[in-house]
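User: I would dearly like some help making sense of a protein record. This is the protein in question:
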Amino acid sequence: MGKPAIFISYRRGDTRWFAAYLHSRINQVLPGIEVFLDVASIEPGLDFEDVLNRTLDRSEAIVVLIGQS
């Protein structure tokens, strides 16, 4: 599988800022861990759904952020 991966799933409407913060902090604290965040991890032109499915399949952990709304 390669490096362990953490997949961050979030609702854009109310947790976007925290998802970006969490992505940054995990990268700082655990530099050897691959952290997936859609806006930071999907290169332009790639099939969004395909990238999500492949990344989910190899992720060791999934963090789901659901805000108040």
The chain has one domain: 5-65. Helices lie at 12-29, 38-41, 48-58.
